[in-house]
Model the fold of this input.
Amino acid sequence: MAADVGAAVARVIPLPVGRAIGAVQEQAADVAKRLVPFGSWTVDDWGRDATLVDAFVMASRLRWSIVVGGDQRLPARNGALIVVNARRLALAPVLAALALTDATGRPVRFVGRPDTAPLGALARRLGGLLARPDELTGALRAGELVVLGSASVIHPRRVGRVDHRLLAPSVATRTKVFPAAVATSPLGRGARLEIGNDVRPDRRRRGPLAELELADEVERRIQRLLGELGGTKTGTPLDWLPLSGMGGN
Amino acid sequence: MAGRRVLVSGMGGDLGSRVAVLLEAEPWVGSLVGIDVDPPRRRLDRAVFHRLEPGLHDRIVDIVTSFNPHVVVHIAVWEPFSRATPAVAERLTDEAATSILGAAAECRALESVVVRSGIEIYGRARGSATRPDEDAPIDPTSGYGRQLAGIERTAAAIGQRIGVAVSALRSGTVLGPHVPSPLGRLLRMPAFPFSVIADPPFAVVEDTAAARAFVVAARDQLDQPVNVVASGGITALQAARRGRRVPIPLIGPEWRFATMLSAILGAPVPDHIVEMLHRGRLADNSRMRELLGFVPEASTVEVIDRLYRWPSVVRVPARQAAA
Done:
């Protein structure tokens, strides 16, 4: 009986120990609340983890200050294939997919993840697809935005070959193909992603020539975009200095 | 269309009896006959049930040919470690496919065959599609996948030979309150392993959606394969977090020990589930809406949430009080 009365009194009068425990509980609840978004990860139909992608987008801002242009050309709801130039070891498709996710607010996937754990598993969580036409077909048919890289080259202002076999799904699903140029610097933070108008083949083809001609045209258009972007440093070294009062690079 | 005779093999199991209940309510079904090694798990009003071992070919041929069905729904598939060991499951599945589908092929009235298959049929070889659709190559990499490929081969051969529509419903792992699923059992353990370096996503389907798919495929006499999976995916680690289970991170060689321990504790893990936990198992269900007219209402995550809410024992009250 005395114990019951004691417990009732303790419930009514907050004792110092109780207050301390309550404060710790509140703190813990607050921390838990902040951690909830990181503790309730879910994956979509392809295994992409939106929370992890958001974390990578935030982390990528530490390395790159990327400016995205032309993203208003992308469809708001339908699928699209965005083909970018790729520099060796620069992971341009991943960078472009993260930047476009941030810019468009839509999940953007990239083609070319490995299929070996743990890298393949991590790439899948970031929205990576295998470089297989059937995988790409499924994603485009489902109305997804997908970034495809050209073959990687060392020169930052050249475009590698675009694999026509990976353009076949866009032809089969009648999805728009957008050329895009990525310009990054290995040392600086500045980066730019410029998306061009969608590529429409001049002639209708019934066979695989459609993909081949589309790939050639996409290559040409990316090269043109790269030319328009300019390099990280253009002109003579004197032009780089802000001497004229008109800026400089 | 009305007055169709429908034969359901595997009517005793959870999925088979669920399909039978739905078929009984269909206006186009005239008479319904079921065959299985176990008695039906649900109350059936119109169906006539024959309890038979799949190896009794002559008896099965007699029953099937005398019934002369228009539609055969072949659900008699034993998933390894669901109700039988892998070796027994393979034998029973093979015998049932041979005797029941073989007998159905002798029936003059036969118009269509719907067989149970699974997305294990696509296999998870390195470099295989993450989310295969129905056109993906069949390349099973597990015992269960090879079992299912065998059924599809048998059914397709019959369809070609006698010119009837054949459809394979390639379902994800079927989960339900009464479904004897090795994956369901594993996920309901207080602790279960996951691959810490991969933790790939997989998709499942609820038994109610799978049963509905069979009924629609039988009614419409579908003549092509279709993936029957819930939308979305989930990983083993995420399932553990949602079910408040303890996830045990494993890297590689200790998997053998973990599966042995799991078997001792009552949840044996067949090779296709081990493969799923290492390589994932998703499938493209976009053709489901086009061919069957629906996609499962419950997503994979919702089915897994329900898995943890289903009671261990469900008491079904008697229709009439015993005297």
